[in-house]
Specification:
The protein has 679 residues and is α/β, with parallel strands linked by helices. The chain contains 17 helices and 27 strands. The structure holds beta-D-galactopyranose. GO terms for molecular function: beta-galactosidase activity; metal ion binding.
């Protein structure tokens, strides 16, 4: 089993620490170390926004203060996750060199200020970042207290999502395209530019898609998104290479859930450890189930990127300051939300931030240490209690990891393509569709991974591929082989429609043989105006907005079963859900959106057929989730997201972690309780 940080086999507890804001208050820094120990903090992230303190003027370095703090923390058993400071530029850099500042789609270059807004192509920016990163690595990269590199901060987290439209980026984009297509003829064909007479006759005619320019060529839009992601990935790689010059410590970047602009699967390949910043919107409604489920999906994505434990690099111990309404976590929720991350595969609980800043835009963001009350707060006490609990469960949890036998296809390129469609409805809602397929697994207590079209499928008994619209090269063959060899594959309406260039696939669905379906029409309706139903598992279910009209393709050798058909409208009797045996496995096709309960019943049946039911499947009250981390001994996390107590019937005799107390039969979970057990 892989451990997250070599030689440091513990769950991490800590967070972003900004001592550079307090260098003229040594008593504050002393107090911090004392309180960190009290809060059972064992690691902090340092240097994220320290560039101006590390290099106050070009080429003038001040590392002494940072070394002193890392030393002091290390002496006290607190490790450092050391950040490269490219997340925010010092004024000397941004003022002096225009090219480092990002240009918006309107052609306007940013003024100096704010953060996460550099041009990733600028050779000057790359040189300056490389220099400071190398210095950092040379001086501190082998410090025994440093356990991990935190490369930059939340790449792309500004209104432009990392995309810069400056001339350097336009040039780099054209080069990227030349490398990809070789000739303009190939590009014109892939982008279908004869449409509206937009054939390119010179590479210079190509510009990034912007609202006042070209946005109607889907191939251009898709390639621009690929380029933006690749360019930032390459920038990240240049930072990784810079720190690697003098240090072999592992590297991570702090990601942001399903962040549309970047293909994190690709980024993951160059990272040692995945980490992300989790800021769910609790108390958004009368219950927190939806928030809990969506947060679980985000954690799951992070674990899936490497099929390994990850780190929750940031979370708030109390409130954020940037949502419309910033609600305090009610007592108990912080512990549950933190343990939810661990349940889903995180080996850490870390915060933004340790101490509230005195000024600046985040002065009212939650922190472990308050402005006036210091550690004498409910928040501090809850953080300290959680820190103690993490220490107590560490041995049982570390090293283990969730090992799903089901997977859901979530593919960034598909996301970009689907959401650009001018088709059956304005918002095709790919991510929401994927989440709607994740939800039943979460509710049923069945572990699931996300995979993309390039990931292997072997090892999963069931793969669900909702709205898999864009088929990359080789995807159809992979699915075919997977089903032939015994896998169960479910896909839906709007799948296998375009190739990797977003060009419609002519002739037939690339998986027509496997699915046994030929689609003729795609309908999008207002369901209240044109209601429809399907029957399945002794129930009648409402059909949703998107509905495909398909025909069965007869296959004498492998007959197709129609499990459910439309009951109304001119397509009454047309197949809505089919199953076809193919090789040793089978393929299912769901032709329409449906009400939520249908997917739960469908996946429960499939889980039964594929023998992947979880121990708690069918026993979980609403709002109670279970996750299983496997290792020498599996550990289950039973999480009650309800604001009230609930009863759960245990499927076996359980031993509570860490005290070994035995539980069996019915147990009561308190509001927000997370019960951790082994068998
Ligand atoms: C994150 C960011 C942190 C801090 C935090 C506030 O997105 O990485 O630096 O701003 O949000 O919630």
């Amino acid at each position: 089993m892989k451990t997250v940080i070599k030689g440091y086999p513990h769950l991490l507890h800590g967070g972003d620490y900004n001592p550079e804001q307090w260098l003229d208050c040594p008593e504050v820094l002393e107090e911090d170390v004392r309180l960190m120990k009290e809060a059972h903090v064992n690691c902090v992230s340092l240097g994220i926004f320290s560039w101006a303190k590390l290099e106050p003027a070009e080429g003038e370095y001040h590392f002494g203060w940072l070394r002193k703090i890392i030393d002091r923390l290390y002496e006290n058993g607190i490790y450092t996750i050391l950040a490269t400071p490219s997340g925010a530029m010092p004024h000397w850099l941004a003022e002096q060199y225009d090219e480092v500042r990002q240009v918006g789609p309107d052609g306007l270059r940013n003024l100096p200020g704010r953060r996460h807004n550099f041009c990733p192509t600028s050779p000057l920016m790359r040189r300056k970042v490389k220099k400071i990163d190398r210095e950092l690595s040379r001086r501190l990269g082998d410090h025994p207290g440093v356990i991990l590199w935190h490369i930059s901060n939340e790449y792309g987290n500004n209104r432009l999502g990392g995309a810069c439209h400056c001339e350097l980026c336009q040039e780099a984009f054209r080069e990227w395209l030349q490398k990809k297509y070789g000739t303009l003829d190939a590009l014109n064909h892939a982008w279908w530019t004869t449409f509206w007479s937009h054939t390119y006759t010179s590479w210079d005619q190509i510009h990034s898609p912007v609202p006042h320019g070209e946005i109607g060529i889907h191939g251009l839009n898709l390639d621009w998104k690929r380029f933006v992601s690749d360019q930032m990935q390459d920038f990240c790689l240049s930072e990784i290479k810079a720190v690697r010059k003098y240090s072999d410590k592992p590297v991570t970047i702090n990601m942001m859930e399903f962040f549309r602009p970047f293909d994190y699967y690709k980024f993951a390949k160059q990272l040692d450890i995945i980490s992300w910043d989790s800021y769910p919107q609790w108390y958004a409604g009368t219950d927190d189930r939806e928030t809990a489920m969506r947060t679980a999906a985000c954690h799951t994505l992070m674990r899936s990127l490497k099929k390994a434990p990850f780190l929750m690099m940031e979370s708030t111990p109390s409130i954020v300051n940037w949502k419309d309404v910033n609600t305090q976590k009610r007592p108990g929720l912080h512990e549950l939300a933190s343990l939810q991350a661990v349940a889903c595969g995180s080996d850490s609980v870390q915060y933004f931030q340790w101490r509230k800043s005195r000024g600046g835009e985040e002065k009212f963001h939650g922190a472990v240490i308050d402005h006036r009350n210091g550690s004498n707060t409910r928040v501090f006490r809850e953080v300290a209690a959680l820190g103690e609990r993490l220490e107590q469960i560490s041995d049982a949890v570390y090293p283990t990891c969730n090992k799903p036998r089901a997977a859901i296809l979530f593919d960034w390129e598909n996301w970009w393509a689907v959401e650009d469609i001018q088709g059956p409805r304005k918002n095709m809602a790919y991510l929401d569709t994927v989440i709607s397929h994740f939800k039943p697994f979460w509710e049923l207590g069945i572990e699931v991974d996300f995979i993309n079209e390039e990931d292997p499928m072997e090892g999963y008994a069931l793969v669900a591929a909702p709205m898999a619209y864009l088929y990359r090269k080789g995807y159809a063959e992979k699915v075919k082989k997977y089903v032939e060899e015994g896998g169960t594959y479910l896909t839906t309406f709007f799948s296998g429609v375009v190739d990797e260039n977003d060009l419609c696939i002519l002739d037939r669905h690339p998986l027509e043989d496997v699915l046994g379906i030929r689609t003729e029409e795609m309908d999008a309706v207002i369901p209240e105006v044109l209601p429809n139903t399907i029957s399945f598992a002794d129930n009648c279910w409402q059909v949703g907005q998107l509905r495909e009209v398909s025909h069965v393709v007869e296959d004498a050798e492998n007959p197709i079963e129609v499990l459910s058909s439309y009951e109304e409208d001119y397509y009454q009797g047309a197949p809505a859900l089919t199953r076809k045996k193919y090789g040793k496995g089978c393929a299912l096709y769901l032709a329409c959106e449906t009400e939520e309960g249908f997917l739960k019943v469908l996946y429960e049946k499939l889980a039964e057929d594929c023998r992947i039911r979880g121990e708690f499947t069918g026993r979980l009250p609403q709002g109670v989730a279970v996750s299983r981390r496997d290792g020498e001994k599996p550990v289950w996390f039973l999480q009650n997201f309800n604001r009230a107590a609930v009863q759960v019937e245990l499927p076996f005799v359980c031993h509570v972690v860490p005290d070994g107390r035995t539980l069996e039969g019915n147990v009561t979970l308190r509001p927000y309780e997370c019960l951790i057990v082994t068998n």
